[in-house]
Amino acid sequence: MVPSTILFVFGTRPEAIKLAPVIEELRRDAESFTVRVCVTGQHREMLAQALDLFGIIRDADLGLMQPDQELTGFAAAALTGVGRVIAATAPRVVIVQGDTTSALAGALAAFYAGVDVAHVEAGLRSGDRSAPWPEEVNRRMISVLARYHFAPTEEARAHLLREGATDVVVTGNPVIDMLLSTRTEGVAFPELDPARRLLLVTGHRRESFGEGLESVCLALRDLAESVPDLEIVYPVHLNPHVQEPVRRILAGVEHVHVIDPVDYVTFVALMHRSTLILSDSGGVQEEAPALGKAVLLLRDTTERPEALRAGNVRMIGTQRERIVAEAGALLRDPARLAEMAQVRFPFGDGHAARRIAEVLRDRLRGQ
Known about the structure:
Elements: E1 4-10, H1 13-28, E2 33-39, H2 45-54, E3 60-61, H3 71-89, E4 93-97, H4 101-112, E5 116-120, H5 135-145, E6 148-151, H6 154-162, E7 168-170, H7 174-181, E8 197-202, H8 211-226, E9 230-235, H9 240-250, E10 256-259, H10 264-273, E11 276-279, H11 282-291, E12 295-297, H12 305-310, E13 313-315, H13 320-332, H14 334-340, H15 352-364
Parallel strand pairs: 1-2, 1-4, 2-3, 4-5, 5-6, 6-7, 8-9, 8-11, 9-10, 11-12, 12-13
Helix pairs in contact: 1-2, 1-7, 1-15, 3-4, 4-5, 7-11, 8-9, 8-13
């Protein structure tokens, strides 16, 4: 049997983290699959960090990232570039993940070329076209273009079936595969005081740029000053719209560590070490329950209600006073925090990549 060529298209660090287990699983079966990887470079430094960490070989690197790039220009360049890669590699299937502009461009280029699209993490819906923006619309359009839909949960599958999708399989999310296989032994944080509780923070969503992000930073400053045994670590996204307010408001605040983005292993170690997490990240919503961590979600909508129902995540938005009140209440009440911070697995059991490979193997053999 001639192996089927599978082309992965992605451009950001979260996509690389979630697709790495799938790439590895398909590469293990060289009789069935020939794996090719095209990266758009939607993120440059942060993506390269993940590719190097996971040993992902780039067969094509479009290198499209530009300072303050506009979505229209990036989307047009990605669509053209991915189209050329598809023409050169002639894949049976193009695999995209999630809801980035790179994922949409990859799916649309494949559709134009008459190539089947497989969508990993399919079926997430916030119900609000403007939040997260533009991701909510991106993933809806990818669902229209895709043939194979790999849903992380039953709820995601239900969304897709209501919208008319047919080949939908619940696989779990491969980020749990990655999380459970990540070894953090030997990762040390000598700059952190072990006697202090750690508040881990991430925040980078477009809809929070400006007033929302400034409000978050002011709340962090308040918490650092009002909770005597607290230490805050904020790995800051490289986007200038995030860097500027975070560093301006938090620079020099005692017991607040504003640091550059860390690699995935280090970030998982920080999650393990944390007492509480404040974040607007989709990945953190998925990972924290599996680690038994509590998250206050700095958003007003979420496409991952499973995390809310599990009890590990509470959605609080970006208002300064509410962040201080909610985080302070949890930090003052260990029993209430412990109730949230239990190990749960709403997004899969760590075998998503194997299930995705099995489905593709069967479909491409015509079964």
